[in-house]
Amino acid sequence: MPSLKQMKDMVIHEVTYFERHNNSRFTVTSRNIPRWGTWINYFRSVPYLYKWSREEEALLPKHYKDRCIEFMRKEQVPVHWRPIQMKYRFDEDSGERIPVVNAPIPVIFPKECNLGLWGGEGIIFGYYKKNVPKKKHKLPTLPRIWHPMLNKSVLYSEILDRWMAIDVTPRALFLIDEAFGLDFYILKTHEVDLCSKLGMTLKREMLLTLANKSFYPNDTVKQEKIYNKYKEFIIPAEEAEWIGLSVDEAVEKTKKLNEAMNPTKPLKEQYLYDLCQKFQVEIKH
């Protein structure tokens, strides 16, 4: 169990302490809280936000706003920690049954994660305490930063028929292999777990290509094969073109669509039209 100072730091100052574990890279000790109903004051970091004013809300379509709200409310799949499945634990000293609180580790997603595929990984700031049995005196608790290991990999998209050099993490490569390809990984993974603007841009391009059936125009056999392979992900093109857009881009797109549907007429043309109508009425009389 953490000391009183560590517990205070975890609850008040949002500090996370780690210790070694045999089955994983690290495990957090702050998930067992001695008091019932006590939650660690943690924040959820996201690589980008969806915020709009009331005027912008009236312009944006409903399906776009629903996707944005779902992204901001949905919890990410645990990547840097393992939730405890049991609901209660027994205190070693008193034997009291205490509820187990699964508190996610605070993870920082920098802007650079929008330029690659990190597989949900981020940067963690915390403290690390070494355990050396041979030494009699206790070693101090040291600060440490855990950051993902990035590699430049060349990936192929079957739908887009394109090779791309992307910064990825080993976890992202494992997830791509687990999904049997980049296309399945991008299309199956939720926006919360992608945590990447690049990933959402690729998803928008893939969905638009599937909706318009604009892939492999010279090979009809392969086009039908790819279409049947990914047809479960097909959505209307009117919705696909909004996926992954920021609020500013979505508002600008809405304004352009409104201007195209209701074009503004210059006043000089309107005045000229009114003047011609007036002359025609005078000639008739």
From TrEMBL:
GO terms for cellular component: mitochondrial large ribosomal subunit. The keyword Nuclease does not apply. One of its GO terms (molecular function) is structural constituent of ribosome. InterPro entries: Ribosomal_bL28, Ribosomal_bL28/bL31-like_sf. Keywords: Ribonucleoprotein, Ribosomal protein. Belongs to the bacterial ribosomal protein bL28 family. This is Large ribosomal subunit protein bL28m. It comes from Biomphalaria pfeifferi (Bloodfluke planorb).
